[in-house]
Amino acid sequence: EARDIVWPVIANDLAYTGQYWNSTGFDLWEEVSGSSFFTTQAQYRALIEGAELAERLNTTCGPACDEAPAVGCFLNSDSYWNGRHHIANINTNTQRSGKDANTMLGANAAFDIAASCDSATIQPCHPRALASFKQWVDAWRDPAEYPINEGIPSNEGIAIGRY
């Protein structure tokens, strides 16, 4: 039943993802037009898991899932990495720092208990994910931007959030 009823719906979504993964769009907050780290990470996981599901259902994912290696390569390239942290959105017309919760949310959404820290899915324990998390938290320590955290020692927790 899953193969006949559910799979066609999933396959349609995977076909769209496989065809348009490298197109710009809006980030998950719908604020920035460009290429979103979170979105690319979610697309990669969807294509990988779609191929696995197709195999379990004894069917094929088709050309859509064949795009997974290209998505994974792009995700792990330096396109989203500036040497210190993941850049939340690229190919934009903004002057933002690139530090954003979407890189942390992406790592959490991609979490796989069986994956290694160096997995191409960029797990929360991946060195680049950890570096990005530290850079993002440290940005919240700036008292000019976030006075709520002023005077809190670096070894203590601070308030962080979306804005």
What's the number of domains?
1
Strand content: under 5%
Q: What structural category do the secondary elements indicate?
A: mainly alpha
Kindly state the mean pLDDT as a whole number?
A: 93
What can be said about the biggest beta sheet? 3 strands, antiparallel
Strand order of the largest sheet: 1-2-3
Low-confidence stretches at least 5 residues in length (pLDDT < 50)?
A: none
Kindly provide the radius of gyration, computed on alpha-carbon positions and rounded to a whole number of angstroms: 18 Å
- The succession of helices and strands, N to C, reads HEEHHHEHH
Helical percentage: 40-55%
* Count of strand segments: 3
Number of helices: 6
Q: What is the straight-line distance between the termini?
A: 45 Å
Please tell me what the overall shape is: elongated
Oligomer: single chain
Please outline what is shown here:
By secondary structure, this protein is mostly helical.
Structure explained in plain terms:
By secondary structure, the protein is mainly α. It has one domain (2-149). Helix content is 45%, strand content 5%. It is built from six helices and three strands, in the order αββαααβαα. The chain has helices at residues 2-20, 37-56, 63-66, 68-76, 101-109, 127-139; strands at residues 25-26, 33-36, 89-90. A three-stranded antiparallel β-sheet has the order 1-2-3. A hairpin with a 6-residue loop joins strand 1 (25-26) and strand 2 (33-36). Helix 1 runs antiparallel to helix 2 (37-56) and helix 2 runs antiparallel to helix 4. It starts with a helix and ends in a 24-residue tail after the last helix. The mean pLDDT is 93.
